[in-house]
Amino acid sequence: MRRGFSLIELLVVVAIIAILVGVATPYYSDYVKESKRAKALQDLDVLKQAVVLFNSQEDLPYQGQLATTSPYLPLLGENDFNGLQGRYLTYIPVDPWGKNYKLDPYACYVYSEGADSRVESDDIREYYVKDLALTKVEWEDRNNNRSLDQGDWLYFNFNKSLWISAFSSADFDIYENSEVSTATLVCNLETDFLTRYTNETQASTSVIITEIGPGTTIKLGVHSLAIKDELATLKKYQEVQCDRKNSNSLVLRTRVERNNTTGDPLRYAVRTNPIKVTPR
Q: Which superfamily, per CATH, for 1-129?
């Protein structure tokens, strides 16, 4: 005679299954999240390499699609990588949450907005230029006397856009033959630079233009400059991000990502080896 399961036995089995499902669900959920994150990182690496390849071969920074009318600003939106398709990308991926990947050509990273595009806390970033650093110092002989002196301009070139909270020539160490020099540098922000970049919400630049003042004794081809290795000085040279929310085809704005408690910039300049001053 075949005997079936009693009601109590069935309830016990159902309870056991429910417990197993309850235990396994969090692990499965975490697995799905990690799988999506891993897929996003793979896609971002492909996009990052495409941007790096464009920048090296075209010898200019990729900024996404540009507006067709003056002032020809980047149209950062849902099609940031269309300009790379064909030569640098075989296809443009979509992130695991069904959204387009984005580009920030000022902070120099590609990113996914994550599961929730309303907040930045779950964004996934891949930097193609990681740290903000001084890369070149150029001299313009404004008075045509072939001497680096008062009235000439110095251009401090960085590898990506930045905002400066305050500029001082005392922010830089002067070197001669790899040794700290007693030479002096006196320079102030050039007037046109101050006119264009006096508001943190304005689009920033990767070049700081300064005018050499009296008392400068550094010599072209002899001396080199490096930002001082002091935290307070380095924090004055701050990385900026594109402020998509407040930008359009006529006005581009940037912002500094800050610590909500201290107000300090989260990303700022790093110390590099001294850089020779070269003619522009």
A: Glycoprotein, Type 4 Pilin (3.30.700.10)
Convert the pLDDT of each residue in 35-60 to its tens digit.
899 999 999 999 999 999 999 999 88
Largest CA distance in the chain: 114
Mind listing the pLDDT tens digit for each residue in 160-208? 999 988 899 999 999 998 899 999 999 998 887 777 665 555 667 899 9
Distance, CA of 262 to chain centre = 21
Residue 156 has pLDDT above 70, yes or no: yes
Alpha helices (runs of H) in the chain, residue ranges in sequence order: 7-58, 191-196, 231-234
Structure-token match 């890369």, residue found: 135
Domain residue limits, the chain: 1-129, 134-279
Neighbours of 136 (CB within 10 A): 15
Question: What is the bridge-based pairing of β-strands 275-279 and 134-140?
Answer: parallel
Cβ(154)–Cβ(212) below 8 Å: yes
SS3 content of the chain, % helix, strand, coil (to 5): 25, 25, 50
**Cα 148 from Cα 209, distance rounded (Å):** 15
Rounded (10°) CA dihedral 12, 16, 17, 19:
140
Reported as type and span, the H/E element at residue 235 is none
